[in-house]
Amino acid sequence: MKAKVGLGRTALVTGASAGIGVALARVFADNGFGVVLTARREDRLREVAEKIRADFGVPAVTITADLADPAAPGVLFEETRRRGLDIDALVNNAGYGVPRYFRKNPWSTHAAFLQVMVTSVVHLTHLFEPGMTERRYGRILNVSSLAGLVPGSAGHTLYGPAKAFLVRFSESLALEQRGDGVHATALCPGFTYSEFHDVLGNRSLVSRLPKLLWMDAETVAREGYEAVMAGRPVHVPGAVNRAIAGATKVMPEPLAMFMMRRQTKKIRVGD
Asked: Quick check: is 168 in a domain?
């Protein structure tokens, strides 16, 4: 029987109503952490929380919030304090994609995207990190993407840059927190079976990709948990994804850009 390293500790997971977010909440719960689940869909959050309580016997509470609202991180922080919860692990997972070319979406769409994908992550970390440092224990897991480690693409223009920011942010945090008992990790999955592509509207296109490119959310979550517990600043799950990330580092930039252009044409929905 494995040791429950998280007994008496609490993890806050954003975007916890589906996909990798649910899988991450479950892997933390499986390791003894109580969980605070947050997302926009209250009914779905309650279902996830009930299942976690039944399966793992740990506390699971929900706080509905829309991270596109600049006030949401502060509300989450104050609500956890009101409930007497010290957050020992912060899992910044909430995210989505914006299809079409940059110029064809209104600024309000881009502003909301950056608020969720970048600003809320930094804000939540800024709120919860000091308590972790004071208690000499903390785990900050930022769900980035393989897209943050490879050249940019036409369409989904801000997705790769936002994910690349999370990689560098996590690396910097990891260096700052050395010796404090606080680990920061960027998890960089590739194609993962989840609702992501259904919401994005390109499920039929990405389904044509080779199966070896795909991973299940549970495996991605398990690897992310193990990486942050071990204190690895960046982790790319899956041998194929690691090979892709490694190849783009040594590949001449024009060739890498050419290959990205060819690949993204296969999965892009509308320009």
From this structure: yes
Q: Would you tell me how many other CB atoms lie within 10 Å of the CB of residue 259?
A: 16
- Contact status, residue 175 vs residue 151, Cβ threshold 8 Å: no
Helix (H), strand (E) at residue 43? helix 42-56
CB-based contact 268:99 (threshold 8 Å): yes
The predicted-structure confidence for 52-95, as pLDDT tens digits, reads as follows 999 999 999 999 999 999 999 999 999 999 999 999 999 999 99
Residues 6 or more apart whose CB falls under 8 angstroms from that of 69 comprise 115
Distance, in Å, from the CA atom of 30 to the CA atom of 7, rounded to the nearest integer, reads: 10
Q: What is the total count of domains within the chain? A: 1
DSSP 270: -
pTM for this model (two decimals): 0.87
- Written as six digits, the tokens of 220 are 């991605």
Residue at 2 is within a domain: no
- What is the three-class DSSP state of 119? helix
Helix, strand or coil, per DSSP, at residue 105: coil
Q: Phi, psi at residue 27, to the nearest 5°?
A: -70, -35
Which structural domain, as residue segments, surrounds residue 228?
A: 10-267
**Separation between Cα atoms, residue 7 and residue 19, nearest integer Å:** 24
Count the Cβ atoms, other than its own, within 10 Å of residue 142: 27
Q: Rounded to an integer, what distance in angstroms lies between the CA atom of residue 35 and that of residue 211?
A: 32
Has residue 4 been placed in a domain? Answer: no
Among 116, 129, 143, 51, which Cα is nearest to 89's? 129
Question: Which positions are catalytic?
Answer: 159
* Confidence at 210, pLDDT banded by 50, 70, 90: low
Q: Count the residues in the chain.
A: 271
Give yes or no for a contact between 238 and 215, defined as CB atoms under 8 angstroms apart.
yes
* Structural domain includes residue 3: no
CATH number of residue 73's parent domain:
3.40.50.720
